Amino acid sequence: MAQTQAAKSRSRLGLYLGLAVPAAIGYYLYQNNGDAKAAALSARADARNAREGTLDGTAYVGAKVDDAYDRTVAEARSKAAELQKGLQPKLGEVEGKVNGWLDRVDHKVEEEVERAKREAAKLLGQAEVEAKEAEAKLKGEAAKAKSSGWFGGWFGGAGGAAKN
């Protein structure tokens, strides 16, 4: 059924166009008292006026569009400036909070660095004490080994073959 209505509307379009052309011709002939040349000139003049009016209208519409664009841009810039002014106090508030947080983090890091330095110094002190104890023990063991046993004889200790 949809196809038949589409077909009907096409046939109507041809009918309307077919009626419009003779009606336009009759109008211009009637306006010019049946003179065909004058009717043709009158139709051309009306077509030219219609075209120029449309072009003028386009220029007018274009000017209105340009004006509307300029107003919209100016309004958008004004609103952006207002928003920026409104955001400045909030920006300062956020900046203050961030700086406070950074100060707390910085203080915490400095405390942890100091604690790590103390721990490292403590560990180094313990290692130094243990190294001195180990050195003293080794010297004692070396002296004991030197004075007795097979090596002791070679290096000047008592009871060895090198004592001759």
From TrEMBL:
Transmembrane segments: 12-30
Record keywords, A-Z: Coiled coil, Membrane, Transmembrane, Transmembrane helix
Highest taxon of source: Eukaryota
Matches recorded under SUPFAM superfamilies: Apolipoprotein (SSF47162)
Coiled-coil region list: 106-144
Descriptive protein name: Uncharacterized protein
Native source species: Saitoella complicata (strain BCRC 22490 / CBS 7301 / JCM 7358 / NBRC 10748 / NRRL Y-17804)
